[in-house]
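Task card 7
Instruction: Convert sequence to structure tokens.
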Amino acid sequence: MKIKFRNTRLVTIALSATLALGAVTPVWADSNPSSISSMVGKVAITGSSYFELKQIHVLPDQSGKLATFTVSIHNEGNSELQFIDYWVRLKSKSGKQFSARLLPADKDKNRVAPSSTTDLTFYATVDSSTNLQDLVVQFIKWDFSQSNFERVLGEVAVPETYTDVTPAGGTSVISIGGTDVNASIKKFVSNKNEKYHVPTVYVTLENAGNHAVTVPSYLFSIRTADGLLYPLEAKGLKDLKINPKESKEIQLSGSIPVAVSANGWQLAVAENIADLKLNVSVAAFQLPVVSQQDGGSVGKSYTFTNKSGVYTTELNALHRLPWEDQDLLTADLTLSNKGDQSLPIPKLTGYFLLDDAVKIDAKLVQTAKVIGLGAGASVNLQIAGKVPYTYEFSHIKLVLQENETETPSKGTETGTGTATDLLEFSTQAELQAIPYIGMGESYTSNDIGRKASMW
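Output:
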């Protein structure tokens, strides 16, 4: 038998009157060979001190596109460096200028102590035709000896080969309150029904610093090859605290119309800046190949994922029983929760496929009176369908599905609506025999609410 998985001092002259002041955003790791470069370029300030363009992103916005970029100020000198004496400009390689402003959380970052580094994050609205590789960041120093009161220290053009997307299998480093957190994608699963792709992404966050952090309420989306964004719901993110050297996993799930190509998807991470009513880019990941479940046999456990969490399913047996002028096909299943948090009973349904050609509708039978699975708990289920007693077949497949619209009623109802394939169990026509209870022996049912012994 085999099984398949489907599924970041106000200047007192007019030139700087427009300064708005901001927030530490993430930086990319350069210690991991699979991560992208952590520096786009740098410009000297004085002596050994310099500006570093650490990362830059462009994200679709209601008024066009929103560019965000982080500049690190490295003060390698012996005296304090004041950012009030400097500024940055964002422009395109063709010379078009965009107004750059600091994010609100950086409003007090005006001084950089000797032998220290400070990160400042800027944002700017750019037109919809401007791409990431079109941008140039210019660094200036206010100089009253100049006719225009400024001196250009240098500029960094985004290289044609630069990408702000972490490749599949790579790690990015996100700075949360000054603490580095390693972010990576552990697994990517995608199911499908008649209307939607149903992706699930597992993200691992590891606190690489020395202080505990509380993860912000990041916004997660699938970004398609055409730049379309589809939001994902995050499970396990609310008030998530990660201690030093500790790792936590969050689960992201959502739905995307089947008309959208599944090729070239990325995971986009953003943070909402409430004061500005803007979503600024934090990170982007190329999604890995969809995880597949290898083959197996009766008695082995396999997992599937939905918006609620991860479930384990075991096919105990397949039976064919006489039922009046028909035969009853039944699949005996055990549904388990091997996690550490309770899960609801999913709205399961399914069907049998005989010789890859004949579909037999089936109903779910849940005799145990339970509506949820506690940590480590399990429940027995049956999937049943009918075939003519004269019909012969050589191959049988059970497709386990989740019904997304209606909750099955108690007993044998499956409900109707859009169903998403979860798992497939397939085997040859040899079905298991019904267990024989000999004379003088007893049969015990341990289903919750229906425990009984029969002689």
